[in-house]
Amino acid sequence: MFTAKVIGSVWATRKHCTLQGFKLLLVKPVDPLSGEFNGEATLAVDGGVDAGPGNMVLVVDEGGSARMILKREKAPVRTVICGIIDQIELKGRVKKYA
């Protein structure tokens, strides 16, 4: 699981039938307190939280958990956005995003 910023939307003219109705988004890992990017961009499925470009999000990066969030046992998916982050408190420091 990691924190990331949604940096874009992805449109697909065709996608697997188990992913119909789900948004595809491009996310990039971010250090939650400094706000600095610290990894490569990856494709993630919105798990029903209605995230969009600019949102800080919590991302699950494990296939079994991702499929459980989507409630799609046969979905060919690994990375799912499971929450939008409003604020993070770590070691006495607070960073607000909403």
Q: How would you characterize this protein structure?
A:
The chain is 8% helix and 41% strand. With 98 residues, the chain is mainly β. The protein has one domain (2-96): EutN/Ccml (OB fold (Dihydrolipoamide Acetyltransferase, E2P), Beta Barrel), CATH 2.40.50.220. The chain has a 5-stranded mixed β-barrel with strand order 1-2-3-5-4. It has a two-stranded antiparallel ribbon with strand order 6-7. β6 and β7 form a beta hairpin. The model has no long low-confidence stretch (mean pLDDT 94).
What average pLDDT do the residues reach? Answer: 94
Report the β-strand fraction as a percent range. Answer: 35-45%
Report the helical percentage: under 10%
What does the largest sheet look like? 5 strands, mixed, barrel
Identify the CATH architecture.
Beta Barrel
What CATH first level would be assigned?
Mainly Beta
Query: The CATH topology is what?
Result: OB fold (Dihydrolipoamide Acetyltransferase, E2P)
Helix count, per DSSP? Answer: 1
Question: How is the largest sheet built, in terms of strand order?
Answer: 1-2-3-5-4
Series of secondary-structure elements, N-terminal to C-terminal: EEEEHEEE
Structural class: mainly beta
Shape: elongated
Question: Considering the protein shown, what is the CATH homologous superfamily?
Answer: EutN/Ccml
Gyration radius over CA: 14 Å
Low-confidence stretches: none
Taken together, the total number of domains comes to 1
N-to-C terminal Cα separation, in Å? 21 Å
- Based on DSSP secondary structure assignment, what is the total number of beta strands? 7
